[in-house]
Each structure stands twice: as C-alpha cells, then as structure tokens.
Amino acid sequence: MKMISPSLLSADFGNLQRDIEMLNASECDWLHVDVMDGLFVPNISFGQPVIKYIKKHARKPLDVHLMIEDPGRYVQSFKEAGADILTIHYEACRHHDRVLHAIHDAGMQGGVVLNPSSPVSLLEDVIQLCDVVLLMSVNPGFGGQKFIENTYSKVRQLRELCSRKNPQCLIEVDGGVNLQNAPLLFEAGADVLVAGNAVFKSDDPVSTIRELRSKN
Ligand code: DX5
Ligand code: ZN
Q: Is 204 among the residues known to form the active site?
C-alpha cells in the first residue's frame, strides 16, 4: 500500500479549516498531526483542543504522532479528541506493551516511532502489537529539516522484521520527505510517507500530493 500523510505542522494555523479542506479534496490518505510537549522534543506544538477542531473538518483518518513523555497518560483523551491512529515514541515510553494494548482497547490503531538513532532491533518484541511503525528520518521537533540518508537501510531492515513477525504492519517515514526521495523510500519498502514542507510550501499542494503518491 502506498499512502501519503501530509503533516499539518506546516499548515497555516490562521487558515486551518481552509488547509484541511484542501487535504480533504486531495488524494492524500491520512492527516498527520504532530503533538509536541517541549520536553521529549524542544518544541511545543498543540494538543487535544486543537485536534478536536481538526477532527470537525477532516474527512480522512487522523494520524496522531505523539512526541510527548510518558504518552500512556493521554491515550483516552487523544481518542476523545478524534485520533484514529496513535503512535508513541519508543524512547518516551517505558511500557510499550501496556500502552499499545490501551490504544487498541480505546478503538484506535497504534504503533511505535523510532528516532533516527534508535535501531530497528528494538522492535523485535513489540512489532506484533503494531499496526504501523513510524521511522523518523529527521530528529523530531521541527518541520523543514534535512532527510537523514540511513533511513533507507532502516526501512529495509524493518521490512525484513515485518515479513518475519507481522506482515500486516505498515511502515511509515517522517521527516524531510520530498519528490526526490519518495520513490526511493517506496522502493525500499515504505507504505506511508509523511510530508510537511514538501506539500505546504509547494505552489500547488494538491498536485504535489498526487505526485508524491504516484512515486511507486
Ligand atoms: C517532525 C514532525 C514531522 C514534520 C515533518 O518532528 O514529526 O511530522 O512535520 O515535516 P517535514 O516534512 O517538513 O520534514
Ligand atoms: Zn510527525
């Protein structure tokens, strides 16, 4: 499956409804929603009250990426805010098994996110519980950063792990994705590409989404 999840972090927050409607009308699959707590990552973005408004206008699943410490504290409240897919950082959580079960019990899809310096081997005993694994291809916290090249080999390693232990699991990549690296990421085995600046800073976001999606 080849999917695109545009990151609203790069949207115009003064015109959020307009940008969400643009995404509704585009060929994108999910809406990527970046939650940052100023502790796990240096930046602070937004939380549940803003997500409730995003949900009101969005007609596609909300792919909520939690860059927060101890994410298990907030599973239920992100469900109530409208998350459909909830991903938690491996590095920010002590009890992955428990939190992934809580995400599923709340009726969401769930998964683990790895920072660029966290090896794929960490997932060996948690991959069975993941609907999706998100590989960070930049250090989390900001949009518009440069893509880290060793992501391709991590995607291939993860593809191998998934084929052994959970073939249904989707592989998502986040950070610095653009029209040049998208085909290579799909070729390496990625299923879902997050794109912030590549979409929102382009002259024609709808056609950029179409182009990114066709790169497979
Ligand atoms: C970074 C966020 C990303 C970010 C991607 O911490 O997780 O989702 O918005 O933005 P680009 O595509 O501009 O790197
Ligand atoms: Zn993200």
A: no
pTM for the full predicted model: 0.98
Spacing, Cα 190 to ligand 2 middle (Å) = 15
Q: Respond yes or no: is residue 174 known to be catalytic.
A: yes
Nearest CA to 126 among 82, 91, 85, 76? 91
Ligand 2 center–CA 166 separation, angstroms = 23
Q: Over its length of 216 residues, how does the chain's per-residue pLDDT go in tens digits?
A: 699 999 999 999 999 999 999 999 999 999 999 999 999 999 999 999 999 999 999 999 999 999 999 999 999 999 999 999 999 999 999 999 999 999 999 999 999 999 999 999 999 999 999 999 999 999 999 999 999 999 999 999 999 999 999 999 999 999 999 999 999 999 999 999 999 999 999 999 999 999 999 965
Half-sphere exposure (CA, 13 Å, Cβ side) for 160?
8
Query: Alpha-carbon distance 26 to 36, whole Å?
Result: 26
Among the listed residues 19, 34, 63, 191, the single catalytic one is 34
**What type of residue sits at position 138?**
V
